[in-house]
Amino acid sequence: MIQIEGKQLIGFTDHAEGAKTLRSTNASTGDKLQYTFSKATRDEVALACEKAGTAFQTYRKKTGIEKAYFLETIAMEIEELGEQLIDICSQETALPKTRIESERNRTKNQLLMFASMLREGSWLDARIETADPLRKPLPKPDMRYLHVGLGPVVVFGASNFPLAFSVAGGDTASALAAGCPVVFKAHSAHPATSELVAKAILSAAKQTQMPDGVFSLLHGDGNVVGMQLVKHSQIKAVGLTGSFAAGKALFDAAAQREHPIPVYAEMGSTNPVFVLPGALRKNPEELAKGFAASVTLGVGQFCTNPGMMLYRKDTSSEIFLQNLKAAFENTSGGAMLTDGIFNAYTTGIARHQAIDQIDVLAQGKRTGENNSAHPMLFKTTSHVLSDHPDLAEEIFGPTSILVEMQTKDEMLSAARNLSGHLTATIHGTEEDLLAHEDLLDILTQKVGRIIINGFPTGVEVCSAMVHGGPFPATTDGRSTSVGTASIFRFTRAVSFQNMPQQMLPAELKDENPLAIWRLINGVRTKEAIK
Amino acid sequence: MIQIEGKQLIGFTDHAEGAKTLRSTNASTGDKLQYTFSKATRDEVALACEKAGTAFQTYRKKTGIEKAYFLETIAMEIEELGEQLIDICSQETALPKTRIESERNRTKNQLLMFASMLREGSWLDARIETADPLRKPLPKPDMRYLHVGLGPVVVFGASNFPLAFSVAGGDTASALAAGCPVVFKAHSAHPATSELVAKAILSAAKQTQMPDGVFSLLHGDGNVVGMQLVKHSQIKAVGLTGSFAAGKALFDAAAQREHPIPVYAEMGSTNPVFVLPGALRKNPEELAKGFAASVTLGVGQFCTNPGMMLYRKDTSSEIFLQNLKAAFENTSGGAMLTDGIFNAYTTGIARHQAIDQIDVLAQGKRTGENNSAHPMLFKTTSHVLSDHPDLAEEIFGPTSILVEMQTKDEMLSAARNLSGHLTATIHGTEEDLLAHEDLLDILTQKVGRIIINGFPTGVEVCSAMVHGGPFPATTDGRSTSVGTASIFRFTRAVSFQNMPQQMLPAELKDENPLAIWRLINGVRTKEAIK
């Protein structure tokens, strides 16, 4: 058993100068747990950033294989935390142990995915243009290009994924893979979980000879510790999964720095689901069950929760609604992650209920825990959506709103009025889909991921995932925070002109010692240059 | 001969509601030319943006081959402008006709480079993860990923490259290649040149059936028309090569929009050149001549002009300085591009001269044109640089400052104190270079391109170029504005989950009809999926 000490873990040393005023909470009961945490002082924040800056000078030179070994060792150390991690995480978040276990697997798999990418080595997009000293009118120089890490990255933990989007989650894994040290601001909803995972990372760092400062964990308030981190000159990028307010505040602060830095904030979305007439007729029961399950999965606490469904009123839509009512009434709520999330959910629900033209179609079952969310399914019409565009804003929790459309044009118009979202889903028969290519075309411009005949919850961690989307879904619609492409949030390309072979990084040497894919004079190849 | 009409070219229609108060100037004489231009009104600016938004809905669906044909036709139409383009451009900029001719070649080659990339098709990074319905605990969905254009892009013309970084320059070519319509704000230093090239683009657009609004040209003030463009809701990204003040103002305006958008401003840099002892001893004459030529090439009006040289004082440095003095005194100035650039040059030179510890090592020859810059080579010591860090800021024009160092440590310290630049250069023998790997390591963190034993002027347009660098060299250190990778400034990735084959873009269909490179389940291949 690891003792929870409640300190800042700044590289390989512990610090606790600040007041021990943070308490860990049992989210299911609302009771305080025995763990107390010190808030990072200004000096401690600065120390973590300075150490990260120093560590970058060593860490950036580690080979892909060395970094892969570090990530693999983190995965192993997380496994070693065993039941203690599952127990504490479940207490702090009210998430069931089975969910925590599967999230632990995902966290480990993310680390291993990046490790595997680093071992293979082609990810850094090596490009070579060989010299042509005889070219007219000017000789062509030898140019070689690859990606390097930006520098120390600040990552903020997400409340809703205490492992997979937290201390050793996707942002940390991709930043470390890119060659960037990480200063991690723990989420106050799971500080003990954070400490356990941070200790696993630091143990792995020591075992694999990574530099002091390659990782630090800090506790404190986002608008104090978080803002200080984002403004520190050593910090070169920021990763966050959180609310619009938090993400936008960090984006603004980063843009106003003397030297602005990129902020990758994934701020959630409503993830609209469009149901086309054929799909609605074909299998109303399955569709209704799938939708009700997606809305209420994990007490609706997913960024990709489908918060809005748009469908066409016709002879079969009544049957579909009956099925949906029955399916939804069969769902259950449960304890939410934090008081703040529960209060925001309650406020959001009340906002819908205050509008006359919004009906309650169905309610899920109440449960007795602390902060237990009551699943709510609302229904309205396209005119009400037009009059209240804020209905398309996310309410984080087990709720969704059905919007009934009279015509295809109304549906297209609603699609055009959407702002940026992470996902959009279309349910349709083959015939439906072919008749709605215009809808697909509009939605492709609004989101990072289009789902056909499925549900948006469940984000596959792989090379082809985009978990991102145009503003306000994220602060940088060109990025993804899930999948292998997420590494490019924390890199930039550098090119070397006429550099002697012996000084080139291995990835760019003529003989291609790592046997990676490279673009040589515009042709993709694994061949060496002779 | 094409008549210069001085209107806004908004898609396929001309507009001239604003006052005709812009005059084209003969830069060599300062005389006004016969061409007058109307400044775009607010309504005209809005119309260009709205037309670009509408055009995007068609243009984004054009195939790679259709877009390639458009770009190739633009190159042909520019060639068709013949001597009229060379004459007018040379008058407006005071650049010699041979330089304009080679810049026209570069402009055409850039268009053809992107056309070739579009015809080949692999650039959009297609990624496919095939489904595994039997995977436990959850089935794996079919995920397919590719890059799409962001939407309409505003591009600002650069004064110093009236063709290659102007109307049909690299920013326009890469945005059009990405599938983004372009609204172009002409630089007031070469409005007639801009009109000619814009007409070539619009003629190509008509010939190749591109939509009305795929390209527009506007005249006016940067802080009026430019700001309105950057704030327009239809605009999704901005490209600029210009001053720090202009780039930073646009960056701030874009970050403060309700929906922030990326700004890629290349704002120039001092491009430090480090000369190591062996190189200085080995061939002082050649090095001196090469440096003097690079500083004064094109009256020093290049973003990559080497504005600072750092070297170690030793027994051979005096010989090198004598060579440099002789070589520099043999250089000539010439007419600068605009009054504003000449005045800024004069002010910058006066700022150096006002500091006691900065000496004039050499002066180039004066010439008699309007706004003729006098080449100036200054010399100082590392202590003065430490006391006046603004000496490392760019003075745009034919000048540079030599900084004499006593020790290697002083040189490393000066390197560490650099902010972001486009390039850094090291001159060294093989022995020198191996003894200065620490210097190379520092510089790699400060710039987009490292040059060994060469000079930074001359930016090869190819797949392996990075013409970018950390702030303040650019507003987005992750990007390049030259080379094929510049297209990714104007794209984002989208993924499709479980999309039926017939609705997928050709690049993502199983059979790989375009025979492009794809990443399938993590493996790079041109194979079809069976």
TrEMBL record, chains A, B:
Family annotation (SUPFAM superfamilies): ALDH-like
- Pfam families membership: Aldedh
Transmembrane residue ranges: none
GO molecular function annotation: oxidoreductase activity, acting on the aldehyde or oxo group of donors, NAD or NADP as acceptor
InterPro entries, per the entry? Ald_DH/histidinol_DH (IPR016161), Ald_DH_C (IPR016163), Ald_DH_N (IPR016162), Aldehyde_DH_dom (IPR015590), Aldehyde_DH_Superfamily (IPR050740), ALDH_KGSADH (IPR044151)
Q: Which residues form the Aldehyde dehydrogenase domain?
A: 18-460
Keywords, comma-separated and alphabetical: Oxidoreductase
| UniProt-listed Gene3D superfamilies | Aldehyde Dehydrogenase, Chain A, domain 1, Aldehyde Dehydrogenase, Chain A, domain 2
The record ties this protein, via PANTHER family, to: ALDEHYDE DEHYDROGENASE-RELATED, SUCCINATE-SEMIALDEHYDE DEHYDROGENASE, MITOCHONDRIAL
Please give the name of this protein: Aldehyde dehydrogenase (NADP(+))
Source organism of this protein record: Pseudochryseolinea flava
